[in-house]
Amino acid sequence: MKKYLVIGKPINHSLSPQLHNYWLKENNLTGVYDKEEFDNRDLAGLILKIKNNEINGVNITVPFKKEIISYLDKLSPVAEKTQSVNTVYLEKNKIVGHNTDANGFKLALKDAEFDVLGKKIFILGAGGVVSSIIFALQEINASNIILSNRTKSKAEDIKKMFNNLKVLDWGEIPDFDMIINATSVGLKIDDDLDLDFSKVEKGKFFYDVIYNPKETMFLKKGRELGCKTENGQKMFIYQAAEAFELWHGIRPKFDDKINKIFK
Ligand code: ATR
């Protein structure tokens, strides 16, 4: 039986197994998708198992998306540019790393009917997912991307990877059309960012990469300000769908049963 895995630390919260196992069943494919908490020292062993066909595909989540790169034989162009890998598989005896987060974000924005062309986008955070978001935004021609992270040096590091990024001190809130929470603040229901959004005007777009809880304090504030809001659920589903398609050659369907996974 084919075996798939998501690895990270922590990993308990991951809904990838439910989603992938649902799609495996729906498509009459035999296989099982598990989750496993990993330490850095386990990565080499994981690669060996992929080489030996003991594991047929792996999703990588925080904090290994960059670290896994040194173990791989080949990167897709988007993984190369973002220096972030969330999907790994064996192709012609080579271990390939790909990034499906960037496309996941792009498709989620399309569903939200938000056109970034000529818009000012303000991103909070500089963790694992931020390079994928910037890559996607630049592909669809966001005109102005501003980044702020509590630890400013990490935002400066990301600035070196892309053209035309502006970095602000943590606490500064510029004029923006869309604001993205890409920090881990909000994963716990009453987690709140120490930022003052009181001067933000209505009609902006508040986007949170977090999908569990469904409405973070960040999104609640946006909603109360009269802004459009969207959580990271669609991005999560789209990134999973692209990984599924890579491994199985089938684009999985999005139906109502999927929503039950997120209840
Ligand atoms: P990683 O950094 O390992 O990739 P992540 O969950 O992707 O992990 O990133 C966590 C992000 O949330 C970081 O941008 C982090 O900011 P720092 O770089 O300063 O640590 C941000 N973050 C976490 N707790 C925060 C807090 N209380 N206030 C503001 N930002 C916070």
Task: Give structural notes.
The protein contains nine helices and twelve strands. Helix 4 crosses helix 5 and helix 4 packs across helix 8. The longest helix is centred in the last third of the chain and has 16 residues. It is α/β, with parallel strands linked by helices and 263 residues long. The protein is globular, with a radius of gyration of 18 Å. The protein has a six-stranded mixed β-sheet. A six-stranded parallel β-sheet has the order 9-8-7-10-11-12, with helices on both faces. Helix content is 32%, strand content 20%. The structure holds 2'-monophosphoadenosine-5'-diphosphate. The site of 2'-monophosphoadenosine-5'-diphosphate (ATR) has 14 residues, from loops.
The arrangement of helices and strands along the chain is EHEHEEHEEHEHEHEEEHEHH
- Name the helicity range: 25-40%
The count of DSSP E runs of length 2 or more, i.e. the number of strands, is 12
Q: Characterize the overall form.
A: globular
Unreliably modeled segments: none
The fraction of residues in strands falls at 15-25%
Q: Which sequence of strands runs across the widest sheet?
A: 2-1-3-5-6-4
Major sheet summary line: 6 strands, mixed
Concise synopsis of the structure shown:
This protein is α/β, with parallel strands linked by helices and about 260 residues long. It has helices at about 15-25, 45-50, 75-80, 100-110, 130-140, 150-160, 215-225, 235-250, 255-260, and strands spanning about 5-10, 30-35, 55-60, 75, 85-90, 95-100, 120-125, 145-150, 165-170, 180, 205-210, 230.
